[in-house]
Amino acid sequence: MKSIVTALTALGLFSSLQSIQAQNTVSTGKVKGSLIVADKAIEGASVSILKAKDSSLVKMELTNKLGNFEIDQVKVGRYLVSIQSVGYKKYYSELFEVASNATYEIQKATLQLLDKQLKEVVVESKKPLIEQKIDRTVVNVEASVTNAGSTALEVLEKSPGISVDKDGNISLKGKQGVVILVDNKPTYLGGADLANMLRNMNSTQLEQIEIMTNPPAKYDAAGNSGVINIKTKKTKTKGLNGSFTSGYGQGIYPKTNHSLNMNYRNGKWNLFGNYSFGYREGFQNLDISRNFSDRNTKEIVSYFDQSATMNNISRNHNAKIGADFFASKKTTFGIVVTGFNSIGTGVSNNATNIFDKNYSLNSITKAITTTDENWKNYSANANFRHVFDSTGKELTADIDYVKYDATNFQSLKNGYLNGDGSFRKIGDTLDGSLPMKIAIYSGKIDYLHPLKKGAKLEAGAKFSYVETDNNARYDSLINNQYKPDYNRSNHFIYEEKIAAAYVNFSKTINKKWAYQIGLRAEHTHAIGNQLGNVMRGASGFDTSYIQFFPTAYVTYTLNDKHQFTVNYGRRIQRPNYEDLNPFVEFIDRYTFQQGNPGLRPQFSHNLELSHLFMGGLLSTTLNYTKVNNIIQQVLEQNTATNETFVRRANIAQLDQFGIAIAGQIPVQKWWSLNLYANGFNNRFRGIVNNTYVDFSTPTLQTNINNTFKLGKGWNTELSGFYRTKSIEGVMFIRSLGQISAGVSKTVLKNKGTVRLNVRDIFWLQQPKGYAKYDDIDVRFANRNDNRVINLSFSYRFSKGKMSNNNVRRKSALDEANRVQIGGN
Fold this sequence. Notes:
Layout: H1 2-23, E1 28-37, E2 40-41, E3 46-51, E4 57-62, E5 68-75, E6 77-84, E7 91-92, E8 96-98, E9 103-110, E10 130-132, E11 137-140, H2 152-157, E12 162-164, E13 170-172, E14 175-176, E15 178-182, E16 185-186, H3 191-199, E17 206-212, E18 226-232, E19 239-250, E20 254-266, E21 269-293, E22 300-326, E23 331-356, E24 361-387, E25 394-418, E26 423-433, E27 436-450, E28 455-478, E29 481-484, E30 490-508, E31 513-531, E32 539-557, E33 562-573, E34 584-588, E35 591-594, E36 602-613, E37 618-638, E38 643-668, E39 671-688, E40 691-711, E41 714-723, E42 726-728, E43 731-733, E44 736-747, E45 752-759, E46 768-773, E47 776-784, E48 788-799
């Protein structure tokens, strides 16, 4: 790890020293101005700085809500400015000179309306794939050709610092416990269910992915490693607008995605809606080897080899409809209703061979497991926004209701043979019905108050109530008769109330120094009740606690090229609702998953020091994270029965040191290169299964994206990622990677786009790993339907002109992704 950190640190420092040296030879200035039409500010207009000699593009920026723009780091020379906005004639300024360390101001540029006969104007600007900002990394999804035909999960796993394991668990910079938001609304899902939802979200619905490793106090404190916000596409154009996308993918099995987005804005109303349908077939081949040993003597007692082939089919319908009412220029009311229905079936054929200590085959168990899931979700949001005056005083409020209703039927049929293939004993069948109901109520209010001399005060409060109802019923087939299995059956009800308040203060002291401090307080009251049956008594827990979560940021701007920021934050990761449920869910005859009502929340301290060069052309970040009572998946074995239990536990303390370097390199006018490298060392120390463990390993994670602009609407891309050996709790994961390529062509007067790509060309993304501690000795190898060729077509239509209204559709719900309907 020392060599990795040393090399990456040297690279970051070398780049910084080079850039510092460069500033002595290249002088720069600023260009700023304001855009006014009929005494009204124009927001979102595209401002381009062009070289006087050939009108080539130098830099581009968008006007803010006050119509202002400011572009810094412009080299000394002669330029002109062009400004364009939908519905207006293009504006050109006079030629002007940019002097060293000086600011040239364009006084109130005025746009003229286009002739009424011109019905439609299409203005297309190319955004970079990766944007590095002080508090977040932004991924512009459509800037990548290989994102076409992909799912949201596939887009995430190729984004900087993000990794996805074989079960769909998402990590950020080597740390699990990330909160996933969609348009600032949480998904309320975890594990396999979150992965399933993201797999059935088409990438064409996405605009940006915001990655925040240390979000400010306004965000909920949940999320050990930070927040990932998936922003979907929106429009500010009046009239009827929309897009249609249809895509087909072929791996071993077919996959399709279709979506329709519509928006109509006129006068005081904005109506919007979308619908998408996804169909996916896939497979998973999983091989597991376990050595069962005597815990005292450590001698091998038996060997366990398991091979499973799983096939699954899912059909997913997603819909959203909503409206915004602009009561006045200052007040907006909104309502959004969403829902989805996911239907999935799966069949697993499993063969388990058990050997004695001399590796002689003793027995064979053949099993068939079938699953049928029907997962429904309904949610509603009402929101309000009021701007008090031109200084930016603002009050926002949200009320939310979310409902999940899921059914899950499982059937496990086992047949038993001797080692020579002869009949061993009568087979058995275990059927399970695992319904889940979740209701979530939440309300939130936020106030923003700008102060004098570059200061700003934010404050807010939130309350949420969650109730989950899990009633697992198992029946065993004995002598051709089904009988209730009370030892496995369980009815668990969980209630949780969280009341929170925060205050955040930020101030720009001068041109060089700025800071932000915040404090969030959250009070949690959780009640869990396990109802009894004829075989098991009732039990429960009632816990209450209050925690404080400070955040702090200090920024120092050395000059136009260099900016340094140090930030600190304390965060919490509460157990997923399903992980608190003590019932047992079978995975196969010898593997069970069990909840743990004794789980406690984990707390993390995150410290980062970052450096931005040229506004994000190169960024370097050093980080340290310490997590107490970390929640991780652990294994427990019963050597006598060859059974393994999988459960979550507060196993250890995590210490992580890391360095991340990101760069955007314009190799040629037609070739741009994005590089990201993250080196870190995770160390886990603590008690697992009553045994002290101390695990650590250095890891290097890299993402590379090459984009080639060939002209006449043609673009190609070659991208990939690679991760060396890593550790996830008690499990070591071997190195893995992926290489993808794609090509796109704009058609139909730039309204349509055809994209063709191949994901994981060489089928490298095949997770393998092992765990070895105490009496646990297990290895696994996993293979999925990852290599897929995708063909997609999208068509955009727009009729109208740009609106100045600032639409807000932000849910109050910022809870962690803690629902695990599938129990994974």
